[in-house]
Amino acid sequence: MTTSHLNGLLAEEGGGGGGGGDEEPRGGQQHREMAVDCPGELGSRTLPVRRSAQLERIRQHQEDLRRRREEEGRQLDLNASLRLRKLSQHPHIGIDNPTFLQDSHTSQQLPLGSQHTHALLELEELLLSLKQVRGCLSDQQSQNDVELVLALLNKSDFQSALKIHNAVATSMHRPSPPYPHTHQALQLAMEVTPG
Q1: Helix, strand, coil proportions of the chain in percent (round to 5)?
Q2: With a threshold of 0.85, does the pTM exceed it?
Q3: Residues 62-77: pLDDT tens digits?
Q4: Distance between terminal CA atoms of the chain?
Q5: Residue ranges of the domains in the chain?
Q6: Distance CA 59, CA 61 (A)
Q7: Cα Rg of the chain (Å, integer)
Q8: What 8-state DSSP symbol labels residue 183?
């Protein structure tokens, strides 16, 4: 007797044996062959669970990546808008020194003859101005403040500092060689230099 398996069905060939009826499929059931180490119910149960867990992890990872991209995009938009605002503003080049800016504006506005006159601080003028201010003030705190300033003006250290200030101010406002001495200096310079 020979037993063969075709398409999962068990079939017997041969004759003469009386015990062959036990090996036939009973009640029309089909026999399914499977590997010994993998029973039928185990493979069908764990595979979908494993796949669904993997799919869930993949979805979660994709969602995290999408969130990161959106956040980076928002950060880039914020940075880009800040950069654009800074680029649209006209930045100052260099350091602005108000002393030189003030001198350049006054020298352009004043005629040549009045460039060299600079108001020096005289001690007598300061004292007179302070006494006039004291007469206009009515509250005691302001009166006390004016008295303190008057005491400061009468000290010899302050008077010597004021003299030094006036000397420096006078020397700073002297004309240096680049300043023209006449009104036609620019025209004369243009005639002399090849242009």
Answers
A1: 65, 5, 30
A2: no
A3: 999 999 999 888 877 7
A4: 123
A5: 35-85, 120-169
A6: 5
A7: 52
A8: T
